[in-house]
Amino acid sequence: MMTETKQINRFFLLACGPLLGLLIALLISGTLIEWESQSSTITTDSDILTTTGNIAEGLSQAENMAKTTISSIKTTAELYHKTTSTMSSIVKMAQKAAVSPENIYDDRISSKLGTPFQTIQSDKIKIQLYKMNPGTYKGYAMKIKLKSTDAMKMTLGNDKLGGSETTLHAVNRYGAVAGINAGGFADSSGKRYPLSTTIMNGKYLTGFEPTFKDLFFVGLNSSGKLIGGKFQRKENLDKLNPLFGASFVPVLLKDGKKTTIPTKWQTSPLRAPRTVIGNYKDDQLLIIVVDGYNESGSSGATLEELQGRLMKLAVKDAYNLDGGGSSSLVVNGRVINNPSDGSLRPVPTHFLFFK
C-alpha cells in the first residue's frame, strides 16, 4: 500500500508541474494585472479599454497555457498507464518463464503414465491416479506432489508400538485423503512390530539398527524429500534429517539405475502383489500398487518387471515396501486395489497423505 501511495504522489507532482510553471510565467512576464487602490480613478475611456484589453490578453494566454497543461497531464497519464501495463506484462511473462521448465518436466513424466482417472489437488498436495496394465500384471500408480512438509505422515497401528490396523482404518482415523501400507513387520506374542529401524516424528522408535542383509530404510526428511538406502552407522542416517520412515527389502533403483535384486527375492515369491514407493528428480513421488490374487508366486508382478517399469517412467530412486496381503491403496475413503487376502490386512505402519 505504501508503494502505491508513493507512485500516485509522484504522478501528480509530475502532472501539476506545468501548471506551477504557468503561474510562475505569468508572474514574471510582461503581462501584469495591477489592482488599483480604492482611491485610484480611471479618468478616460481609453484607459478603461487599454486595461480591459490587457486583462483579456492575459486571460487568453492563461487559457492557452491551461489547455497545454491539461494536454500535458493527459499525455503523462496515458504514458504512465502504458508503462504500468507494460511492466505488468513483463512480470507475468517472467513468472511464466520461471515455472516453464518445471511444467515441461512434469508433462513429460506424466505422459509416460497416461491419463489420470482421478486427480486430487489442494494447496498442500496434488495426487494423480493412473491405471497400469502392461500385460503381465495389473495395478495402479499414484503420482504425488507434496507442496507442504505436513502433507505426508507415517502412522503406527492404533498409535502404539505392537499395534496394527488396516490402511483404510488409519486413513479414516486420521482424516487423510490417501494412504498405503509402509514397512515390514514381525509378529510376537500376538502383537505386530515394525521391522528394523523405524523413525516417528524425528525419533527412533526402538533405536537405530545397522542395515543387514537386504534391508533398507525409506522415509521423508524434514524438508519433505524422500530419503532411503542402507545405513551402517546412525550418524550417516542422521545427516539426512529423517522425519519418519520404515524398513523393508530390497532397494530397486538408486540414482536412476537398477540395483542387484538378491537371489532370494527373485524367486520367493516370483510374482506377488506389490507396493513400491519412489521419487522423480523433481522430488515428486510415485507409488505403484500391483494386484494379485494370492501370495503363492503365481500372480502379481516380479521385482524385475517393476524395475523395468520404473526405469521407463523415469523414476530416480525406488524401494519395495511390504507386499502380498499387506499391499493397500486407499483414496478418498475407498479401497482402490484388490487385496489378495480378500480384505485389507492390519499392519503396523502406514504412509498417509493429507489435503
TrEMBL record:
Give TM segment ranges.
Answer: 12-33
Q: Which InterPro entries match?
A: NAGPA
Q: Which residues form the signal peptide?
A: none
Q: Domain Phosphodiester glycosidase: where?
A: 174-354
Give one Pfam family, short name only. NAGPA
Q: Which UniProt key words apply to this protein?
A: Membrane, Transmembrane, Transmembrane helix
Q: Which domain of life is it from?
A: Bacteria
Protein name, UniProt field: Phosphodiester glycosidase domain-containing protein
Species of the source: Paenibacillus segetis
